[in-house]
Structures
1.
Amino acid sequence: MRAVWYDRQGPANEVVVQGELPTPEPGLGEVRVQLEASGVNPSDTYRRRGAVPAEYPRVIPNSDGAGMVDKVGPDVSAKWVGKRVWLYNGQRNGRWMGTAAEYISLNADLVTPLPDHVSFAEGATLGIPCMTAHGCVFVAGPVQGRIVLVTGGAGAVGHYAVQLAAWAGAMVIATVSSDEKAQRAKAGGAAYTINYRTEDVGARVRDITGGEGVDHVVDVDFGGNLAAVLASVRDSGSIAYYASNGALNPEMPLRTLMAKNLAVHGFVLPTSRHAQRKRAQTDIARWIASPGRILSVDGTFPLYETAAAHLSVEQGGKTGTVVVECAR
Ligand SMILES: NC(=O)c1ccc[n+]([C@@H]2O[C@H](COP(=O)([O-])OP(=O)(O)OC[C@H]3O[C@@H](n4cnc5c(N)ncnc54)[C@H](OP(=O)(O)O)[C@@H]3O)[C@@H](O)[C@H]2O)c1
């Protein structure tokens, strides 16, 4: 099969190579997916760059993807063959072979049917971004009738968090950094937006909520946003964070956390609980069954330009997910 890989970590245009590798056979409990699209997430670039120690001598990058099941291994129903699917945790959890290739074999548990009205490129945006959004929106319980603050509500994860929380019946407040991003968050279902660069987030949230604060926060930058989030969340509320690029070791105001009886949940998709991930797959399948959801593809690159796709993610400023087209 045609594939892209790296044998050492480093800058994309120095370490990423392309060529032919043996097509993987599906093992026990596995399906093989003929890939059409591969999603590039920031964590795929961190791994390639060397931000985490190398786990394997060779890596086909990228966790997420979408395509058609073309073969199943022992103990897997033949009904999967021919099904359009999206997948997550490709190059993760013991697998060196990710989705920047024509085929991937992985546990049938990690694939979910993709409806015909969702393109493969859109399907490749669902893995890390939407699964993470789901994990963070629902980790503290149902959000129906609750007020949820999503920081970075126009980001790949943040926009799915806005949409899933609104779908589940929450009133959503999103922080953004521009009018354009405010429009995007509102199109996803945010009732209110706050420009976190120019406005006092805590004051605006208290104003919107009649002084009460929000029940739950989905946060893109726990360390960087800590003061604003603590000023926004109500007593006995909760915070789920999935990144902390503004400060990885923030000074923690423990008395405030304690006095407000807050629950703080960190979230990382690959190691999150299996039951939580199964529920996310089920909910996302229900959610995308209705047309009109916003699944954002920032741009597409041919397979052999995967290095350029990684560079594009590293440059920042993407809207949604950068996608590699595996058959192109
Ligand atoms: N834990 C996990 O499992 C997991 C899963 C997915 C992603 N992540 C991490 O989450 C981060 C975002 O990923 P992504 O793919 O969603 O990136 P993205 O598409 O670039 O979105 C990030 C968004 O957050 C906004 N933002 C940045 N700092 C902010 C702040 N302090 N307050 C409010 N908004 C802020 C950005 O907009 P402005 O710059 O315009 O404000 C942007 O809209 C990355 O660091 C990624 O590695 C973690």
Note: Residues 112 and 282 are 8 Å apart (CA to CA).
2.
Amino acid sequence: MGRTIWKEIIKAGKVADNIGTSFTSSITKRIGNGTSISFWHDIWVGSECLKSTFHRLFMLESRKDVTVAERILNVNSTSIGNWDWSRPPSGRAIDELTELNNLLISVNISDRPDSWKFSLDASGIYTTSTMSNLINKLKYDTNSRNLSLPKNKYVPQKIYIFSWRVIQQKIPVRSELDKKGIDLHTILCPLCEHHFETIEHALVNCQKITSIWTQLLDWWNQNNIRISNINEAIISDQGFTHNPIGSSIWQATKWIACYIIWKHRNLKIFSGKIWNPAAIISEIQSQSFSWISNRSRKKTPIEWHQWLLNPSFYASPNRMGIG
Ligand SMILES: [Zn+2]
């Protein structure tokens, strides 16, 4: 990199400091043809190397030092995994594989050589902007901060990444794949087969999904609010405004709900699993209990029966313990 570019980087860092947001910056590899990038060890998609995010799959990898070029096939301008496992993934490794396949769809392999990329990003997770775009954004567009999503300590990293991708419109629903010019036999929602599948439709508005949200609101005793768009599902603290603990665990539950809804949508498409709202709700209840209780203070643990009865109990600002 030339001297001028380094000067710009330093300047951008200062701008970031000045607008008072916590930015992370790093040098990452920028994918070209993928021949000089290690698939598992380098940081080339997302904010960490894939062996950390998908450690179960990494254990099953038969060649740990394989390159990106060797693990990704480009079929009709869609990137798909060219896997070689020491034994077939099972159990939670299958969840990881679904995640990883979703992530790889957005990767563009080209004929250019791989290069280095300076990434400076409010969320520290994923950056597609070129550096000059980003510097301009930092200088002139304070709205860029709206794209960041504060962390939530009650969920694992993969749930945070998923939620972040939702608000960045980076979930491979059919409308997004269609925009990328990928040839699909249909762009309709795989659940209702009636509406164009946008991200908002796939996670919130599909008639096969609204009943799930209604029941989650019932479960949380939040019948006075509605979840009718992505903002309300991922960002808004409606229902728990001015209650940081309540708003965090309610948000964690909503993020987990979106993730599990998306997982079951994929299971239906790719494994022919029957769409079963009651089973999805149970999974959201037990999975949110497991993740949130594990990440809460151990002195006053969250009880499963109370969680199932009314999780808002744990959101009370007067209740000491959780947090
Ligand atoms: Zn639908």
Note: Residues 13-26, 119-132, 134-146 have pLDDT under 50 and may be disordered.
3.
Amino acid sequence: MKREDTTPLRAAIVGCGRIGANTAERLRVTLPPVWFPYSHLDALREVTGVELVAVCDQNEAAGRMAADTYGASRCYVDGLRMIDEVRPDILLIATRTEGRARLIEHAAEKGVGGVHFEKPLAHSVMECRHALAAAEAAGVQLSYGAVRRCMDVPRRVKEGIDAEELGSLRQIVIECGRVELLWSHPHHFDLITFFAGLREVEAVQSRMSYEMAAFSGKVLDADPVVEGLAIQFGGGVSATILATGAGVVRVICEMGEYVIGGNTSWLVIHERGLGMEWRQPTPVSVPFTMSGRQRALMELAAAVRGEAATCYTAADILRSNQLGLASAWSAVNEGRVVGIAEVPDDFVVTGRKGDLFA
Ligand SMILES: NC(=O)c1ccc[n+]([C@@H]2O[C@H](COP(=O)([O-])OP(=O)(O)OC[C@H]3O[C@@H](n4cnc5c(N)ncnc54)[C@H](O)[C@@H]3O)[C@@H](O)[C@H]2O)c1
């Protein structure tokens, strides 16, 4: 229902580290301009009608610094307490994965209107289901840190897929180098879900590198490096993740392909002619309007005001997390083909890398 009240929405954040509040200087140089504003709080500053009222970090100094930089009047070290006392309209969650699902459940219990949380949602399907069920039951608007679907170029491609501009979708190929499952691939699973939609998943198969001793019972105590991954959807659509390449995403349709490159900053369409010959690739100009994070937060605010839904449903977020956990389940089962329904709900990938967790 549309909110009649015109007072600013009140926002609060848990987790004032690199992605919450401190965009690394290195990223300002290495990421293309379409990624900025990048951190939660830099992006929130650009969203009209929302005011940051409280910050929280278990490291008090990090919280204080974020409160001073972004002008929040209240600073906490305990996120649950902040939610209880502040009752924000919008909660941003930029902690590491541990405890994220619990924060979402608590926000739902306390009537928070919308939550933007980092990726992945949780370490197991069970945790994902609980958090999403609590949010859905309470009518919490959802927004997810895998923000490529909010960026201009993927949105242009999605419009093309939906309009069958190049015929029907056949395959999504992501060339991303050897990167970790929980740290990096949630972005790719979300992009695959965005482009492929919620069509049936017939099979998932993956190979990953991790110390053999890291897997025991139903726990993979690692953030495994993905060496190769294939997903077969119903209707003859598939997705492949390759451990090579320069971050290019190819969305292949019957009559041509979309090539997204430059870390989601440019688009080329490579089309086939009527004789199925490949024509010259054509660069497509996609005007930059705002970063994915800014759009994710702007759309979340609009959803909390009852104006429009966000582009993330609970089913999308569950699906993209399930794809990741099914891939890991395949990898720990000697790379055999698995279905997403056979992944035990309590199979856990901790995301450990040395002493740190994703
Ligand atoms: N969407 C993206 O593009 C993107 C990029 C980088 C990282 N991430 C994700 O964001 C998350 C955070 O990454 P980061 O690099 O900012 O980590 P970080 O360690 O720099 O920051 C996390 C902060 O959260 C605080 N924190 C952790 N648990 C807390 C709790 N329970 N209560 C209060 N504060 C708590 C920590 O003290 C720290 O300051 C990770 O899960 C990562 O996967 C997303």
Note: The chain has ten helices and 19 strands.
